[in-house]
Specification:
The structure is a single chain. The chain is mainly alpha-helical. It has one domain. Strand 1 and strand 2 form a beta hairpin. The longest helix is centred in the middle third of the chain and has 28 residues. The radius of gyration is 23 Å and the shape is globular. The N and C termini lie far apart (46 Å).
Length: 477
């Protein structure tokens, strides 16, 4: 729904090709790493109650050229293959369901009513949503589940006189930075603290003020940006694309919802209530968390088809809209697979343990301040290779936390450096499949998004460094 004409492809050809080229370069670099970086293996053992990590060189495992070329397909055979398949199905089902609701006329009607209600309170609407999404990311670790909301917020942003970038930023940037400024995020802070033998969800003395400052910075930045583009739309990060879409919106014929709008809205409300139940119960019910994507996708499917049937036209018409929606999302699948291929090549090339061992050795030779900054930067770079926050924690915290003891950095500070390095870079690395999906849903290109998010990333990087220096100096625990 980033475009209100469902016949349009999800991603413009130029945007698609530019992203393909960028990911292709990263795939080549990842493949070349298996030739240039020694292969190694880190093993873990217990001695006298202490965990000892041992590194050993292994036979070089250069990835054949044919395997590098086919890595976007072969990545589904790697250890993250099942997650990739689930993610693709998740996006396809949600895209098809939104296509049904959009073409039935119910979503355009809901957006029109919402804009009318907040026509004179746009700033309040923006700030409230930034706070809500930021809290969801910070307290519950919700980020991927927020992505479908872009399909609602982009057209909403257009109707409020803003742009596609704002429509993506309100849910995604807010939740992403809230995820990074985690307070009770079970997937990053919770996992890392458990691995580092730190009391669960401790350290709020620094995390809570950091979250408040981060959320305030996001809200102020979006308020500044929206005021700027209201005065001069050409200042928009996605101006060229926005102009095309605005012309199409003016020329488009918005379908009237033929059924009971009240009944359809109640049905959608019930489905969103069920989705909220899945999202909120996930952190405390492991089974629900494991099945979150399939459950949310199923609810979206039931919601979309249900609304399509309520609109009249029968099953054939509803599923026709659904399958056309799937076709619109096909280019996004290619980007997801190419992004996943980078991590897959690092995995089969057996170079990740060598990189981790090298960084751990460098850390030991530095002072406290320099060491914590190196951990922070290392985690940021690791996020490009291992987009999963939990996966990074499992890989790095068991090694870096004991190193912190040797250097004189508290384990809580090591966890904080991991948290900052992992979270914020989720919104800049093109190897993060969720970022590619998000910009695809918004209809903007990676370069436009990078240009938009860079200023606030620089500001928050400075804040991260400041808080890390405070943590070192107060022996944060």
């Amino acid at each position: 729904m980033a475009r209100e004409n469902a016949s349009e492809s999800l991603i413009e050809l130029r945007v698609f090709l530019a992203t393909i080229i960028l990911l292709g370069i990263l795939i080549i670099v990842a493949g070349a790493a298996s030739y240039l970086i020694p292969a190694g293996n880190l093993t873990e053992s217990i001695s006298d109650g202490q965990t000892i990590h041992t590194y050993a060189r292994i036979d070089q495992t250069p990835v054949p050229v044919w395997k590098i070329a086919l890595s976007p397909l072969m990545c589904v055979t790697g250890k993250n293959g099942p997650k990739i398949v689930v993610l693709i199905l998740f996006i396809l089902i949600i895209g098809g369901s939104f296509a049904v609701m959009n073409n039935s006329g119910i979503l355009p009607k809901m957006l029109s009513d919402l804009v009318g209600r907040f026509a004179h309170q746009k700033r309040l609407f923006l700030v409230i949503n930034v706070l809500i999404f930021s809290l969801l990311g910070s307290c519950l670790g919700i980020l991927e589940e927020i992505v479908p909301m872009i399909l609602i917020f982009v057209p909403l942003a257009y109707r409020m006189g803003w742009d596609a970038t704002t429509g993506m930023a309100i849910p995604f940037l807010s939740a992403g930075f809230g995820f990074a400024a985690a307070t009770f995020n079970p997937f990053t802070v919770g996992t890392a603290q458990k691995l580092a033998d730190v009391p669960l969800f401790s350290g709020l003395a620094l995390r809570l003020p950091f979250f408040c400052i981060t959320t305030t910075v996001v809200a102020l930045y979006l308020l500044y940006y929206t005021r700027k583009i209201e005065k001069d739309p050409s200042k928009s990060a996605s101006y060229a694309f926005d102009e095309k879409i605005r012309k199409k919106i003016k020329a488009a014929v918005v379908p009237d919802f033929q059924g009971s709008a009240k009944g359809a809205m109640l049905w959608m409300g019930l489905c969103f209530f069920l989705i909220a139940g899945v999202v909120l119960s996930g952190p405390v019910v492991p089974v629900v968390q494991d099945l979150a994507f399939p459950l949310i996708a199923l609810i979206f499917l039931v919601m979309g088809i249900g609304v399509g049937l309520m609109a009249g036209g029968g099953v054939k018409r509803a599923f026709g809209h659904f399958f056309r929606g799937l076709a619109d999302f096909a280019p996004a699948i290619v980007l997801i697979l190419m992004a996943a291929a980078v991590g897959y090549l690092i995995e089969v090339g057996n170079v990740l343990d060598t990189i981790l061992f090298t960084i751990s050795n460098l850390t030991q030779s530095l002072g406290k301040q320099a060491a914590v900054l190196l951990i922070y930067i290392f985690q940021m770079l690791m996020n490009m290779l291992v987009p999963s926050g939990t996966g990074q924690a499992v890989l790095t915290i068991p090694i870096l936390a004991p190193l912190g003891d040797m250097i004189g950095i508290t384990r809580q500070t090591v966890v904080l450096a991991y948290q900052f390095g992992d979270g914020f870079s989720n919104l800049i690395w093109p190897t993060n499949p969720m970022l590619l999906i998000a910009i695809g849903l918004a209809g903007i290109n990676y370069r436009s998004w990078f240009r938009f998010v860079l200023p606030i990333q620089v500001v928050l990087m400075g804040l991260c460094i400041l808080f890390l220096m405070i943590a070192v100096n107060i022996h944060f625990s």
